[in-house]
Amino acid sequence: MENQNNKKVFIYSTPMCPYCEMAKDFFAENKIEFTNYDVSTDVEKRKEMVEISGQMGVPVIIIDGQTMVGFDEDKLTELLGL
Predict the structure, then answer these.
(1) What's the pLDDT tens digit per position in 4-24?
(2) Domains of the chain, with CATH numbers?
(3) Cis peptide bond upstream of 18, omega within 30
(4) Which candidate, 64, 30, 76, 58, places its Cα nearest to that of 49?
(5) pTM of the predicted model, to two decimals?
């Protein structure tokens, strides 16, 4: 999905992860469109996430090819140019 600032945003998450929910809430509050991959049910996306991040921890967030693991509001703000 495209955002007004043309950044492509993807999040690998699980439904029970509080940090995943915080990240998705942050995107919603800032009107950032994103693609969510539920790695609790999508085995292929889970493998992809581990290849990208080198670990099983969620959330894994990718913004225009830049990967971050976990929820860091300051880093998200910086990467999104907010």
Answers:
(1) 567 899 999 999 999 999 999
(2) 9-80 (3.40.30.10)
(3) no
(4) 58
(5) 0.91
